[in-house]
Amino acid sequence: MKARSWTIVSLLVLGALLAACAAPAPPAEEAPPPPVAAARFQTILDRGKIICGCNAELPGFGYLNPAGEFEGFDVDFCKAIAAAVFGDANAVEYRPVTAPERLPALQTGEIDVLIRNTTWTLTRDTANEVDWAAVTFYDGQGMMAPEATGWKTFEDMEGATVCSTTGTTTEMNLADAFRSRGLDYTPLLFEKTQDTATAYEEGRCDAQTSDKSQLAALRSAMEHPEDHVILDVTMSKEPLGPLTAHGDDKWNDVVRWVVWGMVQAEESGVSSVSLDDMLESDDPTVRRLLGVEGEMGTSLGIPNDWMVQVIRAVGNYGEVYVRWLGPAGLNIPRGPNELWTNGGLIYAMAVR
Amino acid sequence: MTTATEVMKPPRTEVGVLGWLKKNLFGTWYDALLTVGSVAFISVVLYGVTNWALTGAKWGVVTTNIKVFMVGRYPYSEIWRIWASIGLFAVMAAITGVVWRLNIARARRAVTISWIVVSLLTVVLLAGFGENTPIPRVPLAIWSGLMLTLTLGIVGIVASFPIGVLLALGRRSNLPVIKVFSTMFIEIVRGVPLITVLFIAMLMLPLFLPASISGRLSNVLRVMVGMTLFSAAYVAENVRGGLQAIPKGQYEAGRAVGLNEAYVMALIVLPQALRAMIPAIVGQFISLYKDTSLVVIVGLLDLLGIAKAVTGQTEWIGTQKEVFAFAGVIYFITCSALSYASRRLEKQLGVGER
Amino acid sequence: MSAIAVARQRTLRVLRDERFLRALGQAVFAIAVVLFVAWCLSNYRDRGLTFTFRFLREEASFDLAEGMAFSPVDPYWKAFIVGLLNTIKVAFFGIIMATILGTVTGVARLSRNWLISNIAGVYIEIIRNTPVLVQLFFLYFAVILKFPSLEDRIVLPGPIFISIRGINLTWPRPTESFAYWLPFLIGAVIVAVGIYAWRVLLERRTRRPVSRLPWTFIALAVPLLGWFLVPGNPLYPDRPAVEGLKVVGGTSLSPEFAAILFGLVIYTAAFIAEVVRAGIMAVPRGQTEAARAQGFTEMQILQLVILPQALRIIIPPLISQYLNLTKNSSLAIAIAFLDLYAVSSTMLNQSGRVVEVFLMIMAAYLSMSLTISVLMNYVNRRLAPVER
Prior knowledge:
The complex is a heterotrimer of chains A (352), B (354) and C (388).
Chain A: H1 2-22, H2 40-47, E1 50-54, E2 57-58, E3 62-64, E4 70-71, H3 73-86, E5 92-96, H4 99-107, E6 113-114, H5 122-127, E7 130-132, E8 137-146, E9 161-165, H6 170-180, E10 186-190, H7 193-202, E11 207-211, H8 212-220, E12 228-230, E13 237-240, E14 243-245, H9 249-267, H10 275-278, H11 284-289, H12 296-300, H13 306-313, H14 317-325
Parallel strand pairs in A: 1-5, 1-6, 9-10, 9-11
Antiparallel strand pairs in A: 2-3, 3-4, 7-14, 8-11, 8-12, 8-13
Helix pairs in contact in A: 3-9, 3-13, 9-13
Chain B: H1 16-24, H2 29-56, H3 60-64, H4 66-71, H5 79-102, H6 105-127, H7 146-172, H8 176-191, H9 194-204, H10 211-214, H11 219-245, H12 248-256, H13 261-276, H14 278-291, H15 303-310, H16 320-349
Chain C: H1 3-16, H2 18-46, H3 76-109, H4 114-128, H5 132-143, E1 154-156, E2 160-163, E3 166-169, E4 171-174, H6 178-206, H7 213-216, H8 221-229, E5 235-238, E6 241-243, E7 246-248, E8 251-253, H9 255-281, H10 285-293, H11 298-328, H12 340-351, H13 354-383
Antiparallel strand pairs in C: 1-2, 2-3, 3-8, 4-5, 6-7
């Protein structure tokens, strides 16, 4: 058969290609790779808007509302950055990314900034050519199960089927947690968070694991949220925050200081309500933050009234938190995400 | 009246309702058994489906989200542009219908040309220009819902056809380098699932392009490239089948009247081959249209992607049946329309009536 | 004519020579392709990316709960094998089941019974005109995930459990005396082959069609006899039972496996039905009538007259349906079944080795496609009557 012999040839060529590639890499790789995104910030300024990689299916953090718009805690940071750079919170193009494709999307320059509950880990920071800018939410991997089970610890869960999303650190932490205790369990991995949640709610698995914030978000979207509890177990540290590609530190600086600016605003009592009064404030930190004095914005390469625009658009860190994660939203207690002055971990570097 | 009584009436068992029943449903004892079984089966299924559709189903999930299903994230204020495009196409379809029905030979070329013009116009209308024009730019990346499904289908079909023909010619060519290249491309693409090709376009392609280029390629565009190349390999095989069916005499006759190889191919062989392969190629296009649903796996929000996203809305928990049934019905209507159109086309061109 | 003019003439002749132009064109094309590939590779290297398969020997550190036993300390390559075997499992059972369902539907479509023919027609139309992914989503999310919980499971005689955790069946397992029973099983096969050969010879000798396959069932008597001769029972029924959160004993079908298998079978069968229908319709009616006139039974007509001729038309499109089923099994990723593709996707995410893993996926699918077409082409050549 003619077609068959051609397939054989194709296969052989592919094999040869594999073999050729598998051979020791040529010494060419000794040269340091030139930065991929060296001029990213300039590209963004020329484009007139930022492309923000976000989640499309996580209530509270990033999701599509019935009007077809993105909103949520993470999405507000996209808006804040756009407000700071362009004075317009709508100068954002949202690009929903799934967990497996999010880091490649950043590396390849398809998105400018990724704000999609992504954990800051050493491996990712080094292997994937990305840089985190700040931490917007301190999280930890938890476990959700129906309240009726009465479970408290992993030992109670012997033999359980646990649903989780693939392509994340979650599945590895899960394997570690059960293996280290010598417990038997069955993992069931879905490609998309929403599918994981659906499978859990329908009873395909006995429990679901993910970051606690995500579990709270998913629980809030359930038909009977009160029937499910997030167990008091923590499998890992999950500091979440925005990240940019390696190479353009200026751009990374902008992202980081927008986040810290919002934190500082909360600490200094600058909110969307008090903004107009605060512009008259005598507090030097507030005056610098709002661009009344000093060159804070200009030295970042953005308009000096950056924080005024941010506060006007989305408010300070606390306002954003309350809007999406407060009692009216997902109702996640602030806990570690309280300001450092109130015993939490949220702390901005000095604005001066 | 009384004289015509000699005419015998047909036997009662072969005409009328009873006759039809006997012939078609109760021919033999096992036919009768099968019929009774089928009636029971149909009753159960019909009762279940209608009962669910009329009383159990929460169709609110579809009616509330109908805009999201159709155009997804296309801005509210710009929806008139979609209506305008649909209007344009409707007018063009009507004109084409009239011209073809009345068989106005002279108008045909004009109609064909205006189709191309209208198509380009629609693309411009939907995509828009810069910021401060009456029709601001709507980036491809936010096209979603049924609109994205249709866009992917149309672009895939239009772009894969010429590439497929070229690949088929390449595979039949007597230039070894071209032949090997075309054959390898066709065989490798046909040997792997579409989803692999889509993931290569999404994840792998950008790694092999400089950042300045890959950053500008939106995910929708990359998926389009992937789908087009995938479909082209299949179109190529269909066209090749058509080329093989053309008798050698046609080539020879063409050469004998002094046409060079390219002209023989373009004027004599290819038109006949394509005409013979219309059913197969249309079949391939229908399957390409259905395959656009696979983009949901690489994270695009096409009709199916929107359907899944909608099931995540808090107020519509557990409405998977309604939502997927609705998506299925839309696909069914559009696919059936496509196959109906292709059957009409076949009839009109007289394919298979030799 | 000056020497220069002659030389120019010669050059022109070479330039106009078709053979030269062909060679030149191909060389340009080949160089363009090579340059493009080189450019791509240099871009790849510029990103600081490397190419190595060394990661395959590293610890995978994720868990796989479908198919072959796998633990997080196993290496990546073993995960790939798990996925490959799962895909082969789906393709193997899928092809067999889709062929059976498709043939039945195709024959039903041609039935003289109006109702049967139209039920088959509606099934074929609905399935063929909707995407397979929509069907898979519907089957998994809207049907299988709505099954009752393990506590409220449906228990069929056997026992067979049907719940959202899958289907659990009673399964025969060998005991110690199975070894004594094995020779009887082998004996049964030999007897069956013997009977079949005898019937074929009988057919040749009498020159009359005789039924062959039903007779081979006589061979079943051998293992039956053995069952009573062997000490104890060679097989015992392993019954499923609920223990804590899961079912132990018996054999089980996970909901994800059931979804991808049945989803693909239902989809592909509709296409196979059309193939079978077209094949049977291509056999002229006169053939059936002639056979009937000679006193063949309906079964014999189908087996000896229609099918041998129809198969020749059926097999080539059937091959492409088998290939489609195998390739479509990659959609398992959308419903959490751990096929080759889903496992590779996890490998790729955890190791970051995009290109390497993709080359492995492509090589695996190409090999599977090749195997199926080789096997089926062999069958085709054996079945096809000699061309005249």
